[in-house]
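Incident log, support desk, overnight shift.

02:14 A customer reports that sequence design results differ from what the structure should imply. Their input is reproduced verbatim below. On-call engineer (initials T.W.) acknowledged and began investigating.
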């Protein structure tokens, strides 16, 4: 079925065309139509499974991947409202359409990047001529330029709640807060290296739950970095690509002693904190001591917001300094370092969602950029948050050959102290979230599981 219609508007009379229907078509439902079966939002898993099944049928030439046609378009002063075959509709602002022209002069299909310059964009741009059919929307602009927009491209980028939610999930999956009863999901180290489906399951687990345990890890100090290199790139810091967490002489960090460590996030002295920490237990301490304690900072922050709103406001609006100054213990470490960062203990995004926790009592600086009258309230807030975290924490002892992975900008970890003579050996290394999400999207694409339309 095809259809074609045209609307013309002179610059001097664009307003006269407001609310004029450019084209209208009633779709005849065919019982084999996939789109009309979707009567309610699907879960992420159901969406992924549906996409995978459609891809399989396409590859077997049983069923083409369905398109979402344009059924009508309606002109207004600053936008054209497009209605799609699945019943959804969305205004498409002219300035956005012109900025996203897909022609070779405006967009590189090889580099997947915009070639036109923002300085050349007219925010008052108007459409002089609009034509639409099942497959595309075609516009002649007041600057003389012509653009064509595929129906599926518009549907995926529509300003609808559904399309916007899908893009948010492509960016980052919703998090699932957890408390003291949380059990870490377990993954086999070699299976993650050999099977992308297992690796994807770990990536999805880390995005949603922020924690997992790898089992049967090789007995070598670079097992963590080797897994990270399989995923993407090791996040470097002044401790090098990996850090032996042992009781070191002439130590350059409190963690490299046998002392008890309070729960903390690693590397808050960096403006861009490491996203995921890999904690590999090469050799565990025999006897009492060395137990790990973990907590979900997201869960704790939401409890703080609900039960102690004043403390929550203080910790989200007061900057703390974090610092780290020292010297190398090993050849792969920076010879001398002096890092300082400054941000709140709890960071919110523009939607007031918690996106980063930065707790590390060892390297929280003694300098406070506060008037003295606010210092006590700040400490009271820190203590309340710390108490909430410990009240909802989980304690266990890792075995030799275990590798715990934690979302380092969300989850906190600590340990019980152990005897100084112990040969307990932990290795830590880091992976940035940018790289982890990148690998997740690529595997989803490869498996036909990345839903974007």
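02:41 Re-run completed on a clean worker. Output:
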């Amino acid at each position: 079925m095809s259809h074609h219609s045209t609307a013309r508007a002179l610059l001097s009379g664009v307003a006269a065309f407001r609310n004029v229907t450019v084209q209208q078509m009633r779709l005849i439902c065919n019982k084999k139509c996939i789109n009309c079966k979707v009567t309610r939002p699907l879960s992420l898993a159901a969406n992924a499974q549906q996409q995978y099944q459609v891809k399989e049928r396409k590859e077997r030439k049983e069923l083409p991947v369905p398109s979402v046609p344009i059924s009508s378009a309606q002109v207004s002063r600053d936008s054209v409202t497009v209605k799609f075959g699945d019943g959804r509709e969305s205004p498409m602002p002219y300035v956005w359409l012109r900025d996203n022209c897909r022609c070779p002069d405006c967009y590189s299909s090889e580099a997947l990047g915009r070639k036109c310059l923002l300085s050349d964009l007219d925010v008052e741009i108007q459409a002089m001529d609009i034509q639409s059919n099942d497959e595309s929307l075609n516009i002649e602009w007041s600057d003389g330029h012509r653009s064509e927009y595929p129906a599926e491209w518009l549907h995926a980028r529509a300003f609808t709640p559904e399309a916007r939610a899908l893009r948010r999930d492509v960016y980052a999956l919703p998090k699932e807060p957890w408390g003291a009863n949380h059990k870490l999901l377990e993954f086999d180290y070699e299976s993650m290296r050999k099977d992308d489906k297992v690796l994807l399951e770990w990536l999805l687990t880390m995005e949603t739950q922020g924690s997992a345990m790898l089992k049967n890890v090789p007995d070598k100090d670079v097992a963590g970095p080797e897994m990270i290199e399989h995923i993407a790139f090791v996040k470097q810091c002044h401790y090098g690509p990996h850090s032996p967490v042992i009781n070191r002489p002439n130590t350059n960090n409190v963690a490299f002693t046998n002392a008890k460590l309070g729960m903390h996030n690693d590397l808050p002295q960096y403006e861009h904190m490491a996203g995921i920490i890999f904690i590999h237990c090469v050799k565990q301490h025999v006897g009492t001591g060395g137990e790990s304690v973990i907590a979900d900072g997201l869960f704790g922050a939401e409890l703080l917001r609900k039960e102690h709103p004043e403390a929550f406001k203080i910790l989200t609006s007061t900057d703390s300094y974090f610092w780290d100054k020292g010297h190398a213990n090993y050849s792969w470490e920076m010879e001398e370092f002096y890092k300082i960062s400054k941000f709140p203990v709890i960071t919110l995004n523009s939607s007031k969602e918690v996106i980063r926790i930065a707790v590390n009592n060892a390297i929280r600086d003694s300098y406070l950029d506060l008037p003295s009258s606010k210092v006590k309230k700040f400490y009271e807030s820190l203590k309340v948050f710390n108490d909430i975290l410990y009240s909802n924490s989980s304690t266990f002892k890792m075995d030799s050959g275990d590798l715990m992975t934690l979302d380092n900008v969300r989850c906190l970890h600590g340990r019980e102290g152990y005897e100084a003579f112990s040969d307990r050996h932990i290795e830590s290394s880091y992976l940035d979230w940018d790289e982890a999400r990148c690998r997740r999207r690529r595997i989803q694409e490869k498996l036909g599981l990345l839903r974007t339309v």
